[in-house]
Amino acid sequence: DGGITQSPKYLFRKEGQNVTLSCEQNLNHDAMYWYRQDPGQGLRLIYYSQIVNDFQKGDIAEGYSVSREKKESFPLTVTSAQKNPTAFYLCASSIPGSDFHSGANVLTFGAGSRLTVL
Amino acid sequence: KNQVEQSPQSLIILEGKNCTLQCNYTVSPFSNLRWYKQDTGRGPVSLTIMTFSENTKSNGRYTATLDADTKQSSLHITASQLSDSASYICVVSASNYQLIWGAGTKLIIKP
Fold first, then answer.
1. Could you give the count of Cα atoms lying within 13 Å of B34 in the half-sphere of its Cβ?
2. For residues B90 and B35, is the Cβ–Cβ distance under 8 A?
3. How crowded is residue B21: how many other Cβ atoms within 10 Å of its Cβ?
4. pLDDT digits (tens, 9 = 90+) for A28-72
5. What does the pLDDT look like over B58-67, one tens digit per residue?
6. What separation in angstroms does the CA of B84 have from each of A19, B15, B40, B61, B77?
7. Does A95 have pLDDT greater than 70?
8. Could you tell me which of A21, A33, A92, B7 has the fewest CB atoms within 10 Å of its CB?
């Protein structure tokens, strides 16, 4: 079955550590995204990538980094510079690259990764 | 400032009853409006997408309406089932390719 796989499901981090969240898709989608979800708030865009080897900052990119070396993979690193990293992280993908927020473009989400800072 | 506000924050209804969730937005320019369903601890799943010219769209027991003049949308759930328990999120897409997400309405269906 096609879909998006995020791992790990749960992750604990000590202060000062970097952690990497994995996102893999087998939908052959060009565009991939990382969102952060906090209680009582709407999803916020961290980074997005419309094509391999290219990515752009979203609304809250500070303290995060990404890479897009393969079409199928878009890992997110939460660095020690992110002061409040405890949150639910969602990876998504969509078909079009250049028109990624058009009306015909539906985001497909993974099951999410919950990061907790100890 | 582009904003999407949803009401109520949470709602509890009995199984089999109908309910309506509200979404008000102040997004300009407007491209389309989407409703997503998010089960606890899972990613959101798309229910409907409506463009400016569409007033209503159905997906099974889910019916979304859009009034572009008043900038309001609603999601009506008919004959609710226990599996409808989830958060329902309204998302508005601006023509500059920005997605504005609401905080969601948490719906609980009781047997």
1. 25
2. yes
3. 23
4. 998 899 999 999 899 999 999 988 999 999 999 999 999 999 999
5. 999 999 999 9
6. 34, 9, 11, 10, 9
7. yes
8. B7
Residues 9 through 48 of chain B touching chain A, CB cutoff 8 Å: 31-32, 34, 41-46
Say which amino acid occupies B109: I
- Range ranked top by mean pLDDT from A67-76, B29-38, B97-106: A67-76
Type and span of the H or E element at A95: none
**Is A106 in Cβ contact with B31 (below 8 Å)?**
no
Cα separation, B76 vs B48, whole angstroms: 12
Residue of A nearest to B49 (CA): A103
**Token pair for residue B89?**
């999120």
Strands (E), chain A: 4-7, 10-13, 19-25, 31-37, 44-51, 54-57, 64-66, 76-78, 87-94, 108-109, 113-117
* Mean pLDDT score of chain B: 94
pLDDT, residue A97, reads 46
- Within 8 A of A108 by CB-CB distance, chain B residues are 46
To test the contact with chain B by mutation, choose from A101, A105, A106 the residue with the greatest count of B C-beta atoms within 10 A, namely: A101
What one-letter code names the amino acid at B56? Answer: T
Q: Which pair of tokens denotes residue A26?
A: 């087998």
Would you state the pLDDT for residue A98? 44
